[in-house]
Design goal:
35% helix; Alpha-Beta Plaits; alpha+beta; 3 helices; 37% strand; elongated; 110 residues
Length: 110
């Protein structure tokens, strides 16, 4: 991953898990902000069957330097066998906002 700033995407099966992951990512400095977007339907094939699941999308604002910590936290907390964890590079943005993201993700509690 070459971009300094990343948007992470991950889905959760319920609001309780979504809030737990979002809170932990922000509190531990692995993400500056996490948006929780309910009302998502995911259509996918898993183990030979097509599924239509109601899910919640997490939109995670982080940096390349915090990515591995963020990914490890989602994997540790997530209840699904193979959770979605995708990075999208940020090619531009308000410089003050991106500086804030960098600052927040450099405050690692570990």
């Amino acid at each position: 991953m070459d971009a300094e700033h990343l948007v992470g995407l991950s889905t959760c099966p319920n609001m309780t898990l979504a809030k737990e992951i979002a809170d932990t990512l922000v509190e531990d400095g692995h993400a500056a902000c996490v948006n929780i977007i309910p009302g998502l339907t995911s259509v996918y094939r898993w183990k030979g069957e097509t599924h239509h699941d109601q899910e919640i999308l997490l939109v995670i604002k982080t940096t390349r330097g915090a990515w591995k910590r963020m990914e490890a936290t989602v994997l540790r907390l997530h209840t699904e066998e193979l959770p979605e964890i995708i990075a999208v590079p940020v090619s531009g943005g308000l410089s003050d906002y991106l500086a804030w993201v960098t600052y927040q993700t450099s405050l690692e509690d570990n």
